[in-house]
Amino acid sequence: MSLKDKIAIVGVGCTKFGENFNLGYGDMVVEAAYEAFEDANVGPEDIDAAWLGTAFPDAGVWKGRSGMDLAEPLGLFDIPITRVSNYCATGGDAMRNAVMALLAGEHNLVLALGVEKLRDRSPTESLVKMQEETGHPLYQKGLTAAGMFAVYATRHFEQFGVTREHLAQISVKNHRHAVLNPKAHYRKEISLESALKSPMVAYPLGVMDSCPTTDGAAAAILCRREDAKKLKPDYSLL
Amino acid sequence: MIGITSLSVYLPSLRLKNETIAQAWGRPASRGQKAVANHDEDSLTMAIQASLNCPETVKKSDGLFFASTTSPYGEKSASSFMATVLDCPQGTRSADFSGSLRAGTAALLAAWDGLKAGSLNQALVAAADCRLAAPGSLSESMVGDGACALVLGKNQPAAELVASYSIHSSYADSWRKSGDLYFDIDDPRFSQIAGYSQNVTAALKGLLQQTDLKPEAIAKLVTVAPDLRSQSGVAGKLGFRPEQLQDPLATSVGGLGCAHPFLALAAALADAKAGELLLFSAYGDGADALLLKVNDGVEKLKQALKLELAVAGTREMKSYAKYLSFRSLIKGEEPKKTIFTSTSMQLREQDQTLKLYGRKCPDCGHIYHIPVRVCPSCRSKDKFERVKLARRGKIFTFTEEYYYPGPETPIPMAVVDLDSGGRMIMQMTDTEAGEAKVGLEVELVFRRLHQAGGFHNYYWKCRPLRG
């Protein structure tokens, strides 16, 4: 069964991404959720169920280990909230689960929200520290998140003739797009040369090939297609 | 006939020149260099490397003796741990010898007694040391790090053990109190009189008398003195000619503590011919003297020895500060950390983490290093065969980690396809940045990964295959 054109996004919200030293985990939840409520022309009382995505509570501020961390900042104490964690697919998976609930007919208007608060620690105290301190005490010790992808890149280079220049072009393109996005972490164009010259993180990936340690939250309000029109005439379809 | 059937020398790849030490302290430079353990090496890992290099299979040994004055534990047996890593069967007797620079020969003599008495059939004796001299002290450039392992058996030994004689003494010219980091040395003028010269002379004299031999009958005198003058002094006094003296290689690698007599013996055996007699002694709190008779088996031992390669080293330790940090004598910027570890987990998983066994799926043939219950390739359940993994392989892919904390960055991480089948991811060591390549041949080496849970966590790493 295809999901195509069955589910509508009626509202979205997003904080500025970056080093949000002035915002806590709950602040970002509120900012993203209320922007989405406003976009959808609904209030928190209209939401039937919610999914909260946070991948790394232990590398951040120990928030996002249960649905409670969405319930508390939004005052949503009387609906089911599920916490989803699936590494970098966390936010997308929160949304996928929300879609399933809508299609099952169990809920009518739902919120999917992803939030990560990493920058109350320095980058080396955050994800790198998680890699060093947790997980199997022997296997893979020495590998960071960047390194996990780097070993794929090395092999890909070897097998398919891809080079660092090819990867750098992705970074150049992404930075160009970020200039147009007021909520992006870095809004500065970079040249191919500077991308290639950036310091190594995990060979062959340099700083410009890697994501910065970022704070941010994003939310989407979803319903079945037939219910969308009355909430928002220009809804988007999944 | 009981004797040494194989002998191997393991020296760390790093060499620290006396010149580098002198420069750091603003002193005139002297010649020579010493072997220094990498940051992930200690006496236990070096003894294991030496033992793994012993061509004689350790599996047949029913005795495993470890000798060191610098065991990584004051309480916890290094030899028992070694027996696990070396995959010795239960029933193997293991024991640690310590407390003296004579610990190596003490272990050898105990093993010999075991074989003579018939309670042991074959014994592995591994001696290793990694002694710390106070930074800036005169001893600093004199002590090096390294290990030797030998197998004592009855099957065509390279050198038969013929006789022994021991001297004990309440005097030692070097010592280390319990809890101290560095060893102390006595007034060198006095130790030249009361130390090596007196004890070794007495031990050698005693042995020559016991065996009714004259110095002319001996092909090589193999001893390790704190200084070369004492060594030739003793030899001369007993009537040995200078050419009978074996060079103990101390200026190339430093003094290897209780392992050094075996390095000198290895050097003597590398030049020995069948029928020759070797007079071998170790000094420390007295002296042990042994008479060895070289046999035909020595040719096989020579082929396996590769002594020059081990002595040469492959990398220079150019920074004195780094040397100090490798020995934890200065602390660099290091965040406080609590690495998760677990004794129950490590005991449960030692088959793969220490003994290096993998699991082979009989249905599809896939080999996994980390055991699985259900084959990820064909979903066969609980059918796996236990297979020993090879300690050699080729890099399938790799990365170099610039941000993972450690005494040396970047840390190369290699995904290695083992020659036996099976794929492992592990750190690379004894290597320079940029050396890792897809397809590079590597060997697995046993190293100390970190110290979590208040104990040493050991695991395998890989390094470029050299020589």
What does this molecule look like?
The complex is a heterodimer of chains A (238) and B (467). In chain A, 36% of the residues lie in helices and 17% in strands. Chain A has helices at 25-40, 68-74, 90-103, 127-133, 145-160, 164-179, 192-197, 225-228, and strands at residues 7-14, 49-53, 81-84, 109-116, 200-202, 205-206, 216-224, 236-237. The longest helix of chain A has 16 residues, at 25-40. Chain A is globular, with a radius of gyration of 20 Å. The mean pLDDT of chain A is 96. Chain B is built from 14 helices and 22 strands. In chain B, a hairpin with a 6-residue loop joins strand 21 and strand 22 (457-464). Chain B has 467 residues and is of the alpha+beta class. Chain B has helices at residues 18-24, 43-53, 78-85, 103-117, 188-194, 196-211, 228-238, 250-253, 260-271, 298-305, 307-312, 320-326, 343-348, 350-353, and strands at residues 3-10, 14-17, 33-36, 63-67, 93-97, 123-130, 145-153, 159-168, 174-175, 184-185, 220-222, 277-283, 286-294, 315-316, 357-360, 367-368, 385-388, 392-401, 411-418, 423-427, 441-450, 457-464. Chain A binds chain B through residues 124-125, 128-129, 131-135, 137-144, 146-147, 150-155, 158, 199-205, and chain B through 335, 337-342, 345-346, 353, 370, 396-406, 410-411, 413, 415, 425-427, 438, 449-450, 452-453, 457, 459.
Short description:
The complex is a heterodimer of chains A (238) and B (467). Chain A contains 8 helices and 8 strands.
Topology:
The complex is a heterodimer of chains A (238) and B (467).
Chain A: E1 7-14, H1 25-40, E2 49-53, H2 68-74, E3 81-84, H3 90-103, E4 109-116, H4 127-133, H5 145-160, H6 164-179, H7 192-197, E5 200-202, E6 205-206, E7 216-224, H8 225-228, E8 236-237
Parallel strand pairs in A: 2-3, 2-4
Antiparallel strand pairs in A: 1-7, 1-8, 4-7, 5-6
Helix pairs in contact in A: 1-2
Chain B: E1 3-10, E2 14-17, H1 18-24, E3 33-36, H2 43-53, E4 63-67, H3 78-85, E5 93-97, H4 103-117, E6 123-130, E7 145-153, E8 159-168, E9 174-175, E10 184-185, H5 188-194, H6 196-211, E11 220-222, H7 228-238, H8 250-253, H9 260-271, E12 277-283, E13 286-294, H10 298-305, H11 307-312, E14 315-316, H12 320-326, H13 343-348, H14 350-353, E15 357-360, E16 367-368, E17 385-388, E18 392-401, E19 411-418, E20 423-427, E21 441-450, E22 457-464
Parallel strand pairs in B: 2-14, 4-5, 4-6, 11-12
Antiparallel strand pairs in B: 1-7, 1-8, 2-3, 6-7, 8-13, 9-10, 12-13, 15-16, 15-17, 18-19, 18-21, 19-20, 21-22
